[in-house]
Amino acid sequence: MAPTRDQLLSTAHAFLASLPEHYRLLSPNVTVKMGPDSLGIPDKKGREELREFVAPLAASLKNLKVWVKEGTEPIIDTQARKVVIQAKSYAETVIGEYANEFVFILTTNESGDLLDEYVELVDSNYAKNFFERPQAANW
């Protein structure tokens, strides 16, 4: 039986609230795809590979908050066990405020409590401009 809409939405909100320490919500063999492709970030397979990739960035983001963008509603497909969320973020860094926008495509396991896959699409223009700041070279 597919998870309910409420189960999927609860898992999606827990995912956003737990970023960047979201590993407890990921299945052991989770697949993570980050994009757009123009960023050149390879897919990550499994919690440990993701942790190795995220840890340095997570350490640089203080007081990270991620939430559903105001004026949008998550799209939920219970049969496919998918939730699509347009989100906003805010964090403090040593080179200034980081406030980006994302689309997350989350696919849960059959019980709806862990993510088997997530796709994270970032506002690449904002990210590029942020990380090209002169101060970012020493970050």
From TrEMBL:
<dbReference type="InterPro" id="IPR050977">
    <property type="entry name" value="Fungal_Meroterpenoid_Isomerase"/>
</dbReference>
<protein>
    <submittedName>
        <fullName>Uncharacterized protein</fullName>
    </submittedName>
</protein>
<comment type="pathway">
    <text>Secondary metabolite biosynthesis.</text>
</comment>
